[in-house]
């Protein structure tokens, strides 16, 4: 199956299926879950909770049930967040068959004694795991990789924001006049999706061969923080590029080691996989109070939050596209004035670009790439790009690798 990212776009999003029961590394693709209805009602037929009012009221992957129970037994099947008494928690049980319901702690405590009808009309069946993929070719087969997930119902930040950003990044990359790298975007269910993707076909071998930097996109819509979860050793090009952009873009940002992992960066950095992938978030999963609750709704995300996420990642893409080692073509410090690169009028502020240019030249000895120079001289890569172009136009520097 194929779908276009947007009307009149040449970028194709291909949708693939992996059947239930397929072995994928040490895992197995689970059965597919279908649900039609779920509720709890009291003795006179009043719906206490109803999946049709909020689908978090039923535990994900619940098996069918149609039973009358007293209040004490009912509470054994109700999940709440005791520390957040007004939210509905998001709860799932993928790998053990059970059923359950979710509600706020306050609602549970207000239930009167009596008999209650637990009803779930669902089924587990041999179906498929779906994932989608878009590949945008560049001049080289080396790839920049993006992964995001779609598996959390009714979650604005933890679910919808990653695919939304990925779609905009696909549009951005597709619109670039020149691409050095090939770009691969995948949309998967978290954990089992990344495992399944890497274990099927020649995906893992291709990823190991071509991936230069990879980014797992998660929780991209709030406006509270910027975060990176590092790769296993925190030393990949993806780590360097994202940290570099964040250090200039944000007044402050949060760095989490791989020991604080939790999304698909786990799978991409697993032993034997060892891909150069980091996780990029605004507020990191598990670190904001609305995470995995009904409070993760559209009031949590904002245009400003999405814009910040987009600005950072498009700068990362540009930094990777133009990152290279440069070598000065003359001995000694070059005379910029005779090439029209030095201001002829002295005024406050007019030497800022010259200082950056002189400093860039000083470290353009073939040993440092542009990201390293940016870190050394304290100038964002985005501000160095026009300077690099001027120096190349003047034949003062050349790319060596």
Give an overview of the whole structure:
The protein is α/β, with parallel strands linked by helices. Helix content is 29%, strand content 26%. It is built from eleven helices and 20 strands. The protein has a nine-stranded mixed beta sheet with strand order 1-2-11-13-12-14-17-15-16, with helices on both faces. Strand 1 and strand 2 form a beta hairpin. Helix 6 crosses helix 8 and helix 9 crosses helix 11. The longest helix has 20 residues. 38% of the residues are buried.
Order of strands across the main sheet? 1-2-11-13-12-14-17-15-16
Residue-averaged pLDDT, rounded? 95
Q: C-alpha Rg, in Å?
A: 26 Å
Shape: elongated
What is the number of beta strands?
Answer: 20
Low-confidence blocks of residues: none
Span of the ends, CA to CA: 40 Å
Strand portion: 25-35%
Q: Approximately how much helix is present in the residues?
A: 25-40%
Individual helix count: 11
Give a short account of the largest sheet.
Answer: 9 strands, mixed
Structural class: alpha/beta
Produce a short descriptive summary.
29% of the residues lie in helices and 26% in strands. It is α/β, with parallel strands linked by helices and 401 residues long. The longest helix has 20 residues.
